[in-house]
Structure formats: C-alpha cells, structure tokens
Amino acid sequence: MVNEEPEFWEKSFTEKQEMWGFEPATSAVMAKDFFLAHGVKRVLVPGFGYGRNAQVLRENGIQVTGIEISQTAIGMARKHYGNETTIYHGSVTEMPFDRELYDGIFCYALIHLLDGNEREKLIKDCYAQLREGGYMIFTVISKEAPTYGKGRYLSKDRYELFGGVNMYFYDRTSIQAEFGNAGLFEVTEVVENFPFYFIKCKRS
Q: Would you list the DSSP string of 44-98?
C-alpha cells in the first residue's frame, strides 16, 4: 500500500472537490449507459477519487470496487456515499489488489498522469482483471487540449504542468499504439473540462 499521498492532490483537495462538485462527469454517464446496455454488473474503478463518478454506476445497480491513492479522497467518499463500497488504498501502479475478474473497468482521467511504463502496466493489469467478454473504458486527455505543449517538456507528448503534474497527451495514433493489443474497438471524442478521448476495449 502507498503511505505517502501526492502533494498536488492533497494540498488543495477541498478546493478541487468544490470545483468538480458531486455531479458525475459526462464520461461517467456515458460509461454507465454503455455498461447497462451490455449487462455489466461488477466494475473496477482505478482512480476512484471521492466517488462522484462511481456513484452514478452504483445508483444504477452496478457493484463497484475502487482503487485510490489518496486517503483523504477515500475518507470523503465514505462521508458522502457510505461504507458499502470496497476501496483499496494504494496506487494503480501496484495493481492487482485482488484476484477478482470484473465485467467492466472504468478509468477516468488517470492514465495520462503516468509515465510510459506505468501506462503500459495499467492497461495490461486492467485487461487481466476483465472476465471474457468484459469491457474496459478509459478517458484520456487529447492533444487538442489548450495545455498541450505547455509547461516543461519531459518526453514526446508529455509535459510537467500545474506546478508538478506530469501529463501525457493522446492522439488516435498513440491510442492505437497503447491500447491496440488490449481489445480496442472504439474511440470517440468527448468534451469535459478539457477535450478527451473515450476509449472502449473488450476482452475476447
């Protein structure tokens, strides 16, 4: 388990909560609709946060398990949404936390915060925890975002932004390169606070 939590997350978590609010992201609603249409009953959410995106799944009868690095976020999730959901405290880079196979995985705005090796591992780890016929959905930031190319250059399409947040920006070519061997079957664009890609994969 991770004992130290990221400073950029913990320093202003209350302010971020106020900014994000409790309404689910557009991508979470889209994921909920897709999961319901495809009979998904159990979903793993790496990067659970304080639960606003998982709650829309739970409210629609989907059993959710979370992974979250921030103990503060887990505490807020417990406060606002109760103690029924299993939430593992740790980094997604330490997956797996259990031996369960899930019908679905929903990973929102997280993978682009990781470096190349970590992204590769997360995709493989998530795919490995899907049952046959299961689906995983990732929401990733696009190179169309106004912050692309800003900040300190780290490596191709990856920059240090916002006082210490490292971010990798995707296009359709890099999505194919990273997700192509993980059952990738559809990529759509969605606008949240930034332009994102909504990536769907299926284990077959």
A: EEES-TTSHHHHHHHTTT-EEEEEES-HHHHHHHHHHH-S-SEEEES-GGG--SS
